[in-house]
Amino acid sequence: MPWEAAVDFSLTPEERQIRDTVRSFIEKEVMPLEPEVLRNEREGRPGLDADVLRDLRAKARKSGFWGINTPEEYGGAALGPIMSAIIAMEIGRTFVPFSFGGSADNILYAGTDEQKQRYLIPTIEGERRSCFAITEPGAGSDARNIRTRATRDGAEWVINGEKTFITGGNEADFVMVFALAEEHGVTCFLVDRDMGWTSEPIPTMGQWGPASLVFQDVRVPEENILGELGKGFELAMQWIGQGRYMIPARAIGSSERMLQMAIDYAKIRKSMGQTISNYQAIQWMIADSQVEIEAAKWLTLYAAWQVGQGMDARHASSIAKLNGAVMANQVVDRVLQIHGGMGYTKELPIERWYRELRLLRIFEGTDEIQRRTIARNLIKGHARLGLIGE
Ligand SMILES: Cc1cc2nc3c(=O)[nH]c(=O)nc-3n(C[C@H](O)[C@H](O)[C@H](O)COP(=O)(O)OP(=O)(O)OC[C@H]3O[C@@H](n4cnc5c(N)ncnc54)[C@H](O)[C@@H]3O)c2cc1C
């Protein structure tokens, strides 16, 4: 028997079963809603009604899909990063704005027992909605440059400032907001909406817009500091870093589904007496797309594996996020091209995906910031070339 290295790309029978059950749930319960989502959005309504999403999640919960990466002690399935990435790939096959419920932002686990009761558990249960606010009009990639201030006044902190591009900011019941707390520096505060912050939606080219948040003399009790005073930046990086591989994971599912659409269309669309699948120009777009999707898949799973091993996965996650975001944008562009004029219409979901996927190159660290991170890690020796399995 030849000696075998311990690299193993197979899934266990149980993992395959989970993947197949998710795939069949998405195909049977979620994909049939696609025409309704397109219709609603075309008419200016949210793609999915809140009660339709609630019902879907309840059905999913019955099948055991609840809190995919939530620890078991909080009622979750604790499936770990690789399975979470594989499930995200399955969900990404549909553009229906669906996610399994039962999850909360990773940094809420850093809360005190009381904070967990008030914020973490209700978020897991879907009773409260959170948002994460670090970006400001003058501080995006340069997140260390935030200006929102928190000033101590007795047992309270008074927050003043503005946040922008906050996902879910118009719907959230509370915000994890990052502010400069006097000489202590960046600190994260849990702030309920009824403590006084306001929000305004920002229209974007995507279907669900983020919001700007305004804090004007918002008084927050001392016990609402999440983690430690002055340690907010570390928490923010933990929030961004932990799930970075999930962004390309979902995009891989979308790209595969679209590529299949392009293949199916190329086999029936005729031009100049032949189906366009006969033309090399079309074949190369199909081939290049699959090569890029496969590469993105393994980079993403490698980053997820590192997270699961408790390793410092920041470098691998930056590589996976940069590559996956660029890949998805290239694939959707080719798929649109293969569909010709039809690809450009709102009759098909391709133009919708085209707009939605564009965001991937911007949020949670732009392409340029990922490149900067990757290059700096190599130049400073934090990451080395040529290593496999570490
Ligand atoms: C739909 C959407 C949802 C979002 N959700 C959230 C959220 O929930 N919470 C939150 O806090 N933020 C959120 N963001 C903000 C997002 O993270 C920022 O938009 C992103 O970090 C880029 O910041 P910026 O928009 O200020 O661009 P800038 O930082 O101003 O960048 C402008 C351009 O300059 C480049 N650039 C900047 N610095 C450098 C550099 N050092 N080297 C090379 N190039 C550089 C950038 O890559 C970009 O191309 C969201 C944004 C969008 C669009």
TrEMBL record:
GO MF, one example: oxidoreductase activity
Regions crossing the membrane: none
UniProt domain Acyl-CoA oxidase/dehydrogenase middle: residue ranges: 131-216
Coiled-coil intervals: none
Keyword field contains Signal: no
Entry keyword set: FAD, Flavoprotein, Oxidoreductase
Annotated ranges, domain Acyl-CoA dehydrogenase/oxidase N-terminal: 12-127
Cofactor(s) the record lists: FAD
Entries under Pfam families matching the protein: Acyl-CoA_dh_1, Acyl-CoA_dh_M, Acyl-CoA_dh_N
Oxidoreductase listed as a keyword: yes
Residues covered by the Acyl-CoA dehydrogenase/oxidase C-terminal domain: 230-378
InterPro entries: Acyl-CoA_dehydrogenase, Acyl-CoA_DH_CS, Acyl-CoA_Oxase/DH_mid-dom, Acyl-CoA_Oxase/DH_mid-dom_sf, AcylCo_DH-like_C, AcylCo_DH/oxidase_C, AcylCoA_DH/ox_N, AcylCoA_DH/ox_N_sf
Record family assignment: Belongs to the acyl-CoA dehydrogenase family.
Protein known as: Medium-chain specific acyl-CoA dehydrogenase, mitochondrial
